[in-house]
Amino acid sequence: MAxxxxxxxxxxxxxxxxxxxxxxxxxxxxxxxxxxxxxRCLPSDGRVIDLGGGTGAxxxxxxxxxxxxxxxxxxxxxxxxxxxxxxxxxxxxxxxxIERSFAEPLSACDAVVACIxxxxxxxxxxxxxxxxxxxxxxxxxxxxxNADCVMSETSAVRAASYEGWAKFMEEQxxxxxxxxxxxxxxxxEDYYPPLATExxxxxxxxxxxxxxxxxxxxxxxxxxxxx
Length: 227
Ligand SMILES: C[S@@+](CC[C@H](N)C(=O)[O-])C[C@H]1O[C@@H](n2cnc3c(N)ncnc32)[C@H](O)[C@@H]1O
Hints:
By secondary structure, the chain is α/β, with parallel strands linked by helices. The chain has one domain: Vaccinia Virus protein VP39 (Rossmann fold), CATH 3.40.50.150. It has helices at 5-9, 16-23, 27-41, 57-65, 78-88, 124-137, 155-171, 176-189, 195-205, and strands spanning 47-51, 70-75, 95-99, 109-115, 138-149, 211-216, 219-225. The protein has a seven-stranded mixed sheet with strand order 3-2-1-4-5-7-6, sandwiched between helices. Helix 4 (57-65) links the parallel strand 1 and strand 2. Helix 6 crosses helix 9. The longest helix is centred in the last third of the chain and has 17 residues, at 155-171. The relative contact order is 0.16. The model has no long low-confidence stretch (mean pLDDT 96). S-adenosylmethionine (SAM) binds next to helix 4 and strand 2.
């Protein structure tokens, strides 16, 4: 069954944009890092694919910053795409919405981005195939910039990351019980691999120099450039 954000996050889609900022630290900072990376790698009329682009916040930011670029949002949840459609209507055919899994092969493009979406892939062999699809789709010089959570498998480091994350959510108004309940529910559907695993998968997919571009643990922007 296709992923449904309203089931997964227990949030009405109309409230998603507010909610996500209360549960994901550095959400806006990661977007700024992705845009900065695109500014260095994307041709002015480049084509960008946003994997699991949801309500279109990143796609809109890309379309605004790069007025000749076009963006494709790939997402399996029609309710999220409906919001993206409204949000991005002003860009006309520069923003395309595609109801499709990010596990499908990608068409040729200049950049691939994703924001807190690929952690839904729990099987690392499957994730490796997605990264191989990304690598194959990118034109030479094209960048993959993925903003997501990565978790150390060293228990003390992991515990510190979860404590910091919980503190953030509680500062946004969630109770400690609500915070722990969210973590427990997400653990059923999501997996945050260690950064080393992500970089290894990217290297195996063909990226010569996979890298972490920004990090405040456990949130990270990582990826690579197709040389
Ligand atoms: C937490 S939301 C993030 C949305 C958006 N990128 C953002 O930054 O707000 C995760 C998104 O991934 C999408 N998703 C989950 N599994 C997917 C899949 N296999 N293919 C495409 N999209 C998927 C969900 O529908 C959802 O919109």
